[in-house]
Structure to design on (120 residues):
């Protein structure tokens, strides 16, 4: 069984930065990623990283501002978010997948979510 625990959310002013962490316990060698859901909107893909950490993927809306990384020795994934905008406000979820190159909406493992609020 895999458990994912996010941390690092909070309130920040526009233009500021936050770093999210996702600690995984249980099975290793998972692809991992971040999704987010704003009030009244559907959950959307933000960024993902392969199990090796060699390849990353980003949504167009966060390219150049967010950086995903992982430390496999610590079973932890990170999302460094810079130049935050009010439209980045959402609950951010960590996801992991045993089989796919990167997680998708139908992946098996999800964290509980962490709130990120960006004030204007």
């Amino acid at each position: 069984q895999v458990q994912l625990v996010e941390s690092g959310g909070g309130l920040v002013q526009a233009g500021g930065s936050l770093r999210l962490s996702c600690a995984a316990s249980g099975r290793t060698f998972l692809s991992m990623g971040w999704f987010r859901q704003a009030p009244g909107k559907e959950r959307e893909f933000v960024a993902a990283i392969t199990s090796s950490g060699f390849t990353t993927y980003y949504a167009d809306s966060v390219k150049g501002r967010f950086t995903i990384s992982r430390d496999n020795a610590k079973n932890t994934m990170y999302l460094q978010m810079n130049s935050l905008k009010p439209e980045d406000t959402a609950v951010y979820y960590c996801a992991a997948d045993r089989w796919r190159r990167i997680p998708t909406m139908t992946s098996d493992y999800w964290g509980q979510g962490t709130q990120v609020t960006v004030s204007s």
